[in-house]
């Protein structure tokens, strides 16, 4: 099992009611499996799947990206700066 | 120079900082909090950011911009926190020899910020508060062929 | 608001004057004196204007701009007299609800000023002084179908 | 004969060495005949004919425009503001 901390922002933070959630998951571990594990705990997240982007170590990556222990993992809802 | 700022953005200081003796043109875009969002009356906006990633992407936008246009100085600053109507939320400023480059690059900078930089805006209106849906579709498409995707 | 100014252009005052509570976007173009003109090293520039006609045409440009874009405030100021490197020669500033209008209208304003407003620039360079040839051909073509011709 | 004052700007001012020149000309009087009368006095002006514009009462008009006594007549060389 590896430990993955997932950061939440904007409207996603309101759903999970936290800035960061710690998950224990079996490897191999991807963005997709992270999201699936989170939806089990927070079903409301599922409707965000089409619009949310995954960032690992401050870069956008596809949800198929392999996540390793120590990675900074973030779910990025549609941005609205400016 | 790019930054996420928790305090008031000093526009005259930004203009002074982009000016160079070689520059004949500067374009400065200023995004401010307006008092309405369609039919809704807005009292204030709260901006939040994923700061290290936002600054990293803004730096990447500057590099991308400099690869596309010949410009002198580039400054992008986005404010976070609670802002009132009229407050400056974002400034993009570009200097160049001639005006074409300054205009195009300044527009590119703010378009990219709005598309890909992880910043979120919550509106506080007369009928309650609400997260704003941004221009993410355009952004996602840019991303697929841009320098920011994996 | 348009004007020909014989004294320093106050950019922060212009920005404050175009801001409105309805505006989410402002674009400000600043034209400055640069230290070179191609290979020639410039020490200063002298601008002269046919003032009443220049102000009349700048007012016509503002009207034309407002007929093309939905904008809030428009300011165009051009300085005349002897200017040093780095001095601000011209500012065009536009506020609007969203950025597209501000950018396009601000660009239109400076393009039109450079094309049709009777202002002339003399360069003082290391190899002597010289009147600058402007962008008159573009201007003349604009004129033929524009609102300024007879 | 009517009296027409013609204003000069920029490089044209350097040629005629004056801001304004007073002409006595017979009517009918146009921009073209004004220019022709000026070229007799200042032959150097002729090379500016293709690029110069005529303004009467602060508006650009064609050189065929009829000029009347009291009109403010100006020769506008290529502009270079900004």
Structural commentary:
The complex is a heterotetramer, with two copies of chain A (about 80 residues) and two copies of chain B (about 150 residues). Helices cover about 20% and strands about 30% of the residues of chain A. By secondary structure, chain A is α+β, with helices and mostly antiparallel strands. Chain A starts with a strand and ends in a 6-residue tail after the last strand. The longest helix of chain A is centred in the middle third of the chain and has 11 residues, at about 30-40. Chain B is of the alpha+beta class and about 150 residues long. Chain B is built from four helices and nine strands, in the order βαβββαβββαββα. Chain B has helices at about 10-20, 50-70, 100-115, 135-145; strands at about 1-5, 25-30, 35, 40-50, 75-80, 80-85, 90-95, 120-125, 130. The chains are: A alpha+beta (about 80), B alpha+beta (about 150). The interface of A and B includes residues 9, 78, 79 and 80 of A. β2 of chain B pairs antiparallel with β2 of chain C.
Q: Give the uncertain stretches of chain A in residue-range form.
A: none
Shape of chain B from CA axes? elongated
> What is the number of E strands of chain B?
9
Largest sheet of chain B: 5 strands, antiparallel
Number of E-state strands of chain A: 5
How large a portion of the residues of chain A is in β-strands, by DSSP E?
A: 25-35%
- How many helices of chain A? The count is 2
Averaging pLDDT over every residue of chain A, what do you get? 94
Helix content of chain B: 25-40%
Please tell me how large the radius of gyration of chain B is.
Answer: 16 Å
Helical content of chain A, roughly? Answer: 10-25%
Question: Would you list the SSEs of chain A in sequence order as H and E?
Answer: EHEHEEE
Mean pLDDT of chain B: 90
Main sheet makeup of chain A: 5 strands, mixed
